[in-house]
Design brief:
The complex is a heterodimer of chains A (about 280) and B (about 300).
Chain A: H1 21-34, H2 37-46, H3 48-61, H4 73-95, H5 97-104, H6 108-111, H7 118-151, H8 156-161, H9 164-187, H10 193-218, H11 228-239, H12 250-271
Helix pairs in contact in A: 1-7, 2-4, 3-7, 4-7, 4-9, 5-10, 7-9, 9-11, 9-12, 11-12
Chain B: E1 5-14, E2 17-27, E3 30-35, H1 42-49, E4 57-62, E5 77-80, H2 92-101, H3 107-120, H4 136-148, E6 154-158, H5 166-181, E7 185-190, H6 193-197, E8 202-207, E9 210-216, H7 217-226, E10 229-234, H8 238-246, E11 251-257, E12 262-267, H9 270-284, E13 290-292, H10 298-306
Parallel strand pairs in B: 3-7, 3-8, 5-6, 6-7
Antiparallel strand pairs in B: 1-2, 1-4, 8-9, 10-12, 10-13, 11-12
The chains are: A mainly alpha (about 280), B alpha/beta (about 300).
Chain lengths: ~280, ~300
Amino acid sequence: MPIYDLSYRHWEGSLLGAGRRWMVIAEAGIRLLLSYKKFVFLLMLSWVPFFVQAFMLYMIMVKGASMGFDVSAGFFQNAYAVQLFPLVLVTIYAGSGLIASDLAANALPLYFSKPITQRDYILGKLAIIAFFLTLVYIMPVLLLFIFAVGVSPDMEFVKENYWVILSILGYGALVVGMTSVFIVGLSSTSRSGRVVGVAFIAVVTFAGMIGNLLNLVLRMSQMLALSPNANLIRLSDFFFLQESGLRLHPMVSLSVAALVIAWSLWTLNRRIRPVEVVA
Amino acid sequence: MSATVEIRDISKWYGQVVALNGVSLDLKPGVTGLLGPNGAGKSTLIKVLTGQLRPSRGEATVLGQAPWNNPDMNRFMGFCPEQDSFYEHMTGRRFVNALLSLHGYSATETRDRTEAAIAEVGMSELAERKIGGYSKGMRQRIKLAQAIAHDPQVVFLDEPVTGLDPVGRHHIIDLILKWGGEGRTVLVSSHILHEVESMTSSVLLINHGRLLAEGDVHEIRELIDEHPHHVTLTTSDPRGLAGHLISDPAVVSVRFDEETRSVTAETLKPEEFYRRIPILVTQQGVNVDEMSSPDDNLEAVFDYLVK
């Protein structure tokens, strides 16, 4: 055998730019999840409330039916509250295993033997869950608003509610962003997606229970900051300019969101390494 | 021929544990064996060279560039890790394709290269099967496919033939020889001497994080052969077998153990000794159930070298 004949060929063509490498991970993850029939069914179910609310909206705005509420900012705020359940389900289904399955498969050394960085990897994983959460959380409410604009008989609705689109986008982006970062961060703490799913439910449930309990026992409303649900309600009141029944400052809730994001990013930075170092 | 991989005084420690200690070496195109017992520092060295670990001290360059924090270098390097890195539900083709797509090739180029790499490792007909149903040899081959699919100039293979059956081992050794022949720099780690011998004569010996020797594998083999070699035979009649062995001129001493039904012979001429055993069995009617040599264990080789 001739040695060192240098017969291998190296690629001279163009490659995807460094700034877009995360998209490969995102695309692969989205395709994979869409190949699961159960998940596609869940996505479809997540849109059922949209059709119900669109029907109600049509009846109120076009047929003049009375349902005890009108179509204004509060209607869209409520639409977000309804979409919270699908958001949780999709977060658990699509987000729990995002990194956990890579850890279980010892795949990180393989990922990082390719020309991608830790940032590309994390960004790619975040994009996967953010894509699906946008699909089941922001899109239905946004389409409801567009539908309302479309079916409104005059410009009155637009004149009074044009700012609501910013509320929908701002609040939706905050919830989707925070939830995505949190579940991806949580997913990096275990090799089992199931454990991550259970941990997510436990955090959401127990933190809420503790927050409400402390609020009742200590009579300190700021304790509600421990409750994810209370924070979401307070933030949605803030974004949709609604009078809040909770005695919790929106800045406190925003700070909690910032803390959750900071913890998740810190965890990701520590956990996402090609080599697991046991020192 | 200039070196493609250069390491200067590399050390790597984790807290109190020293994984690499002042290692310096050069690698040139062709196959080089990285030989050392388990825990010697082979994997750590490969991880430093693939940029997955930052050395605590010293400098490593691959193709003139430092691999640490330099993901672009991975376009020119291929890496096959020791552990099974798999998504069991994925097909072999999807696995190679997914990892190759991280290089940023177009979809067509990714597909073409995936098929070429799968064919290279002889997995074309098995590529649509799920990895969960693959044998150990198939898993190794598909792992190798992802390591060479982007045509790297430098390939790091961590224990690529460990645990394979003889046919699978032969196939992978042929591939490694081919890649070395093509002008790639291939570093293959192993803890088994004869595995490395079948791939290359150029070896690096590493133990306890230190590079003990580098050079021709045959010189190492001679070192081993100069040293008394121990062979353990299991038999139903250890006393009888010991009697036969003690009269053999190639044997220096014999020790037997009735309880374990084993006889351990010490010889200075292992080749001659191994030739005589089948004759002893057939002509003298001695029963030998099992034969093993603790000296084939690389740990023993290193004991010789450091004494």
